[in-house]
Amino acid sequence: MTHHVQLPGVRLAVHTRGSGLPLLLLHAFPLDHSMWAGQDDLADEFRLIVPDQRGFGRSDGPPPASIAQLADDAVALLDALHVAQPAVIGGLSMGGYVAQHVAARHPDRVRALILADTRLEADTPEARATRGELAAAVGRLGPEVVASAMIPNLLARSQHARSNPARPTIEAALERTIRATPAATITAALAALGARPDMVDAMRRVGVPVLLVVGAEDTITPPACMERAEQVFERPRRLVIPHCGHLAPLEDAAAFNAAVRAFLREVAGAADTPAAGR
Ligand code: MLT
Asked: In the 8-state DSSP scheme, what is residue 233?
């Protein structure tokens, strides 16, 4: 079910389904909740909560001011949905940055973290400059510049990946979503992404189970980002998904979901065992 939830100062569209351990999934830039459509199967066992973050999809503005603000929105959403128990917070790329900020700012609300195709480090000056150039181009020409700049880099490029029969449908859906994103959201989000802090030290203090996932062919946040993150968290679970690019949950939902299901069962099982520590 997709419905709107009024939070202080913003109204978010959110897809909710299932019951059990709450699993909040936060989308990448500049997408919306539909990138997680392949994860709907997980609602047979878990309580899925999949919002359009502020300014994206069918959520209302104002556009994002910072990644921290998106993290606070996520927690306000859990409050509004009466999610009292700590939730599993999953995010891909920008959603992964937001998930890290939820863990740092609201540690008592987090049961476990799933970080997919993301990084812990801040932007380099070069990356920040590139975002500035893209934002200026969006101001002049509109969101379609982002669609043409990003789509070739979002999906795996190998012949095996290109021959996936679902590929044209996935590309068309990405194109539609990006073109429908308001230019004001895109430029504000690019500024927020560029200004986000380095989270390495904050993540060293995270005391919950962590699952790290990356597509083997991701060129935006390549497997090396995950390898560095593996050195930061204590005994993280990890998965590299072959033949996937930056959007592993969309490109190979079955592999992604199997890893998430196993991880969440482990997390839920540990919570049910009185002697189990984290
Ligand atoms: C995303 O997929 O969310 C973005 O590529 C993240 C980024 O640009 O850092």
From this structure: S
In sequence order, which residues have a C-beta less than 8 Å from that of residue 124 and are 6 or more positions away? Answer: none
Residue 131, token pair as written in the block: 């975002």
Closest CA to 71 of 50, 101, 108, 48: 101
The model scores a pTM over 0.90: yes
Query: Which ligand 1 atom is the nearest neighbour of the CA of 246?
Result: 2
Q: Is 28 in the pocket of ligand 1 (CB under 6 A)?
A: yes
Q: Is 97 in the pocket of ligand 1 (CB under 6 A)?
A: no
Q: Does ligand 1 come within 6 angstroms of the Cβ of 56?
A: no
Among 221, 244, 247, residue to substitute to test ligand 1 (most atoms within 8 Å of Cβ)? 221
Which residues make Cβ contacts (< 8 Å) with residue 165, sequence separation at least 6? Answer: none
Per-domain residue ranges for the chain?
A: 2-276
Other beta carbons less than 10 A from residue 19's beta carbon: 12
Residue 117 contacts residue 96 (beta carbons within 8 Å): yes
Q: Domain 2-276: what homologous superfamily?
A: Alpha/Beta hydrolase fold, catalytic domain (3.40.50.1820)
- 241 pocket-lining for ligand 1 (C-beta < 6 Å): no
Helix (H, G, I), strand (E, B) or coil at 18: coil
Question: Over its length of 278 residues, how does the chain's per-residue pLDDT go in tens digits?
Answer: 889 999 999 999 999 999 999 999 999 999 999 999 999 999 999 999 999 999 999 999 799 999 999 999 999 999 999 999 999 999 999 999 999 999 999 999 999 999 999 999 999 999 999 999 999 999 999 999 999 999 999 999 999 999 989 999 999 999 999 999 999 999 999 999 999 999 999 999 999 999 999 999 999 999 999 999 999 999 999 999 999 999 999 999 999 999 999 999 999 997 655 443 33
